[in-house]
Amino acid sequence: MRRFADLFQRLDRSTGTLEKRAALVRYFRDAPPRDAAWALWLLAGNKIGGPRAKLAGSRELRAWIAETSDTPEWLVDASYDQVGDLAETLALLLDDPADASEDIPLATWIEDILLPVANAPEGDRRAVVERAWRTLPFGERFLFNKLLTGSLRVGVSRGLVQQALAELSGVEIALIAQRMLGAWAPSADFLAGLLSPEPQPGDMASPYPFFLASPLEQLAEALGPLEDWLVEWKWDGIRLQLIRRSGDLALWSRGEERLDGRFPEIEAAAALLPRHAVIDGELLAWDAGDAPLPFTALQTRIQRLKPGARTLAQAPARVLAYDLLELDGTDLRDRPLTDRRAALAALLATLDDRRIALSPEIMADDWTHAAALREMARERGVEGLMLKRRSSPYQHGRRRGDWWKWKVDPMTIDAVLIYAQSGHGRRSTLHTDYTFGLWDGDALVPVAKAYSGLSDAEILQVDQWVRKHTRERFGPVRSVEPELVFELAFEAVNLSRRHKSGVAVRFPRILRWRTDKPASEADRLETLKALALPSAGG
């Protein structure tokens, strides 16, 4: 535990990427394999025991620390509000032990002490937690509390951890990333396989790390001749890799989740592929009129492990394929996009099933013509255009230069601030999470929540205003006088029976504070509804 606590503090205090990577390399080189495996699990963003393993809730921890430290509960809450991090607050409210405690390994703490009491009665869980609080010095106590609250948030990305492991082992970072996709357990055996230069049994069942496009923030003409670029629609679905290797068939989402069984029509079509392949594409809900359905239609299927006939009929699925990563066991990722796409087109031409189809190339005369086509995107139910350099290899992660997403300009509305809530971390003392409403008759109806888009100076101004114009308090939420107007941007809006307003907006964010506009002139709900598309399943 002590070694990992030292690493945590080094990572937390360092601002340099090279310094953080060096600290990671040293830790994984020197730590016992079981400890290193759990450290990797935690640094990758996972929680101990998964989402269903209860170690201690926030309310329990605050109540326990109040009694253990002889601190009034109101003072614990006030301290938490000031510090902004529950794990740090809990650590600060106790003195260090008089004598140095035994250095119990990280894996022992997790496997032999914490996991056995997960979901146990409160008394059993509390006894373990209080024992740690009384015996661990501050640095280890702080880390222990982080394990309880479920998130390290130490400013280290998964990619940086993978870079350190690649440097340590000599294994290519792309293979490290591939082996970490999907479900895995933190064990010494997994870590050994992860860092092994030899082929591993799981390699054949895993997807490749996805290549991600960057937002186009310059004039398209600056990219050079249009003939150097493949232009496609930017589909609004779920990024997916379809894998057919030997006897295995799998669907992997970009979120590292296997979707097997949820889209049986796609699996049936994939089984008809004449050759083994790994295909990258977009999973969409598709209507009988040969057009994409809104993303909300696809959402009705994501959590259904075994969809019934009605669900399959309401939101039939299709994969629009745009890249071929592997064919008959040969890795194609280093080949130019033009070669991969030609091989993909040839493969799909033999498939008599339109549920897996080639994403069409958009033909444009020049960049001006491409821009005009982009403006038609929303009418087609897509988000804009994708621009891919024809000579590009299939890379790992978000590498700028070869793949760009040229999205259509967002929709906007002017909405009224009606609720505000405190943020988290360094913004825990400020009201940074906002709920906005539109006029429906004489009433304001909530339509969106947003917490990004304002400058630090504007956040301070809004926070001061919220404190002076609070109407009511509901726990951490304040209702405020309906006076401030903000312009909100969003990608799409759909009719929805699940929302009080009757609509659901996608990716809302603040564009600007409309200090020039009174609340009475904010937009009306019918204006937003007029922009909406119906969604299958409501």
UniProtKB/TrEMBL annotation:
The lineage of its organism: Bacteria, Pseudomonadati, Pseudomonadota, Alphaproteobacteria, Sphingomonadales. The keyword Metal-binding applies. The keyword Iron does not apply. One of its GO terms (molecular function) is DNA ligase (ATP) activity. This is DNA ligase (ATP). Residues 310-440 form the ATP-dependent DNA ligase family profile domain. PANTHER family: DNA LIGASE 1/3 FAMILY MEMBER (PTHR45674), DNA LIGASE-RELATED (PTHR45674:SF13). Its EC number is 6.5.1.1.
